[in-house]
Amino acid sequence: MNIQKLIEAARKPEIYAKGTANMWVDAHIAQQLLETHLSQDTDLASRKESTISSTVQWILNQVHGDSLTILDLGCGPGLYTERLAEKGHDVTGMDFSSNSIRYARESAQQKQLNIAYIQQDYLELDEENRYDLILMIFLDVCVLSPNDRAKLLKRIYRALKPGGTVLFDVLNVHHTLGGSESKDWQIAEQGFWRNRPYLALSETFYYEEQNVLLNQHVVMDEDESIDVYRFWRHTFSPAGIKQVLAEQGFRFVSCHEGILPDCDLYRSEDVTFCMALK
């Protein structure tokens, strides 16, 4: 085993340095993620069905309309899009994972729901004046670098109709990132990261000046090839969200806490739902 190569891969990187691998395009990991999305035993990839149903109802209570044109960014296997379509809305889902999109299309067909699905990186969203409502649910805004976040919000603004609404959730300042540094390792015949023997070194790094947390996973195969997966995490204050949205031309509307139940990942008070108008 090339220990030095492993040590180099596992070092704390410069902030926002990209990993060497993308878990969404790995067929094995994508299947593990889909199963996690659909599981009712965890909130790791998607929230539980009861929470999704209550969230969809809350969203529609905020954004009124009998037949809204809605885009769900990072739609996964279609857990929100199906509920929105069942309520009579014109719904499109976009996700980078071909595995999730395939499942979502098959599920919609079985349920005879007319939902359009697009397999695409939402950072490449390229539409204009089309949607009444654009959603990003399950803290996606929190994992984007500042540059990617600005790029996406600019594209969302362009894709919304005049007066359209963007609605997303974020971890807020009640959720503490500092002091969360940790290390863990796993060696297995097969598991989440591979369907063959592997070693995984997982570590969290805190960037105090920027108040940013990195979850890094270094995975080595038997042939000593190494993949590095990196997931950044930010928190936002209401003032910070207002500034982020205003920089892209949005009119700030409101922030809402206490929408979700507590779970293993966060408390209800840790999550803020944000709405803004074009």
Which labels suit this protein?
278 residues, alpha/beta, Rossmann fold, seven-stranded mixed β-sheet, 29% strand, globular, SAM-dependent_MTases_sf, Methyltransf_25, Methyltransferase domain-containing protein, transferase
Describe this structure in words.
The chain is of the alpha/beta class and 278 residues long. The chain has 2 domains: 84 residues, no CATH class; 172 residues, 3-Layer(aba) Sandwich (Rossmann fold), CATH 3.40.50.150. The protein is 29% helix and 29% strand. It contains 8 helices and 11 strands. Strands 3-2-1-4-5-11-10 form a 7-stranded mixed beta sheet, with helices on both faces. It has a 4-stranded antiparallel beta sheet with strand order 6-7-8-9, with helices on one face. The longest helix is centred in the first third of the chain and has 14 residues. The N and C termini lie far apart (55 Å).
